[in-house]
Amino acid sequence: MKIYISVYPSGDIAVATSAIKINRNGQEPIVKTFDVSEDLIDSYFKSPDAFDINSETGEIKKK
Amino acid sequence: MPGIGIQAVTDLRRSIESLITITSPESASTTLSNGEFATFTITTTGTSGGVTMVIHDFTLYLGSVSAAHALPDGSSIDMSQWQVVAFPNDWGATNNINTVTKVYVRNISAGASQTVAIHVQARMLQNSVTLGGTSA
Question: Is the Cβ pair B115, A49 closer than 8 Å?
Answer without folding.
Answer: yes
